[in-house]
Amino acid sequence: MQPVNLFHLASQQAEWLSARQAAVAGNVANANTPGYRAVDVEPFEKVLERTGVSLTATQDGHFGARASEVNFRSRDDDRTTAILPSENTVVMEQELMKAGEVGRSFEMNTAIVKAFHRMMLMSVR
Questions:
Q1: Half-sphere exposure at residue 64, Cβ-oriented, CA atoms within 13 angstroms
Q2: Phi, psi (degrees; rounded to nearest 5) at 33
Q3: What's the DSSP call for residue 76?
């Protein structure tokens, strides 16, 4: 098992969140464009897999389920792609939910980095 550099991981997630925010903003901007197809970035879990980091349940009850039952839901599972009369696939409700999710994720990322930064500063004093 390799050590996980939390600050590098947080930086990767922030970059991914920026890309997702740009994709959502582009979808919202083109909501009235005839024939526009909504886009999204690949889930962050796949980005983690490429870097060798994976989310794993280590104990029973971790993530609210038994370790053997943990199954991370793909973002594609809850996406319904309705095609509107203009042949546009942007659904504003979904895009606004994604925008809220991105905002909450940015806040959580920042809070975690801030907490670990404070902890590191306290340890060097």
A1: 2
A2: -85, 120
A3: G
